[in-house]
Write a structure and sequence with these properties.
The complex is a heterodimer of chains A (300) and B (234).
Chain A lengths: L2 H5 L16 H39 L1 E6 L7 H13 L4 E6 L2 H12 L4 H4 L4 E7 L7 H10 L4 E4 L2 H42 L2 H9 L4 H37 L21 H25 L1
Antiparallel strand pairs in A: 1-3, 1-4, 2-3
Chain B lengths: L11 E9 L5 E10 L4 E5 L6 H8 L7 E6 L2 E2 L8 H5 L2 E4 L11 H11 L4 H14 L15 H13 L5 E5 L7 H16 L3 E5 L3 H5 L4 E6 L2 E5 L6
Parallel strand pairs in B: 3-8, 3-9, 6-7, 7-8
Antiparallel strand pairs in B: 1-2, 1-4, 4-5, 9-10
Helix pairs in contact in B: 3-4, 3-5, 5-6
Classes of the chains: A alpha+beta (300), B alpha/beta (234).
Amino acid sequence: MTDAAARFNPSRRRAAPLLPPRDARDGALVFVVATLCFLACLAAVAARGADRAASGWRTELIGSATVVVRPSASETADAAAARAAEALAGVKGVAEADALEREKAEALLEPWLGKDDVLKDLPVPRLVSVDLDPKAPASAADMRRALAAAGVDATVDDHSLWLKDVLRAAGIARAAAIGIAVLIAAAAGAVIVFATRAGLAARADVVSVLHLAGAEDGFIADLFVARFARMAAMAGLIGALGAALVGAGLRALGGGEGLTPVLPLAWSDLLILPVCPVIAAAIAALAARATALRLLREIT
Amino acid sequence: MIEAALDDAPIVRFEGVGLRYGRADEVLKDVSFDLAPGSFHFLTGASGAGKTSLLKLIHLALKPSRGLISLFGLDIARMKRRELPMMRRRIGVVLQDKRLLEHLNAFDNVALPLRLAGRKPADYAADVAELLAWVGLGERMEAYPQALSGGEQQRLAIARAVVNRPEILLADEPTGDVDHEMALRILRLFVELNRLGTTVLIASHDESLVSGSGRAILHLEGGRLEQIPPARPS
């Protein structure tokens, strides 16, 4: 054996990786996938916020009612409102009924009538605010019967007139948010698939050599599955971390109601983000395996 | 399950084989020949005559459009896809473009078929080093392909093709881009391998190399094969 051969002791070294080391193409792939994962994560967080907002609107509308009391000539408005509240409190499905004071009723009219003395001359109706049991709310008919039985002339507004519209709007907002999140996630998945295919096609020379040397299809495919799954997981992690930072920042800056009352974010919304790298890796693994096997079938 | 071939059966048999790419005309037409175990043949013909296509059919990179091909006594049309890798390991191939992996050094390039066969580095290290020395690359085991000359790359490709002692060695224009002296040296490697029992088929259009070898020739012209027996020494 020559000196050079003696110096090079192959039996003491580890076998070199069969795939080439990463190159610039892999960096670009990670960047693109990380960006899309970031957007998909933000969309998912926003979808959860929209879902929470929609649920909140529904709960608020279903969980309350307003009763307008018209006093009879024989009693004061305050007394009529108090009787109405008492009658409503006994209805099954009513959690609480509070008669609003005249000042509060006037405050509700202020935006339209101002603070002038005109309010003192008007027969301002008294309002009773009713909180309903959210699990089994009392119906408007139940409350009307109770008020009639108590001899109170009143109108029950259980928000049913506009509840339907608000619920439809909330449903649309929820569906739109989820749809956007799914669309971006699907786009991210498609990019992972295409990028994986492109990356694998760029290494078709390696595939053909391994194939020629007698490697089994599954063996070759698994080399690429491991490589691309790792890359996609890293990209997914970067995207998820970015989205977590943005989400946390918005939540922290947004105060108790999150970003805005319309789109409330919660800390718990960020808990969905760790699934991103897992999904990205799974998509990349499936895409790499399918592409490698197809490429091998094309070779023969 | 791949069954062992009979000892006296041809190691390669073509019967009325035709090959076409897509809807184009056939590049191989009614090709029939046998390669006996331990034989040495040259495959000649002009560029585009179908030499590379014929070699691809033997190393299972293509399927024939028609006809029968049997390797080691087995009809390849009846083989399942999962059986093909084991079959390929019995065939060494030296391609015209060499197909060396540039991210692997000479040692790892040669060791590739052994790794794929499941052997550990400690088991094959000595064999690979010995083979590299045999092809004259004992000093270049750590060199990467791009640092090797054309002749060295060719010898590296040959070493990789024969490291797992294949029963057939196919070479496509192995002396295409080396000088005559290196071509003779490479040819001597093939002769030595053949002497050790490997069936050799070399595609070449190097007339001087082929005519002086005294070996049987399979000549392709217009997609048809003609068998030319070895020339008798004058």
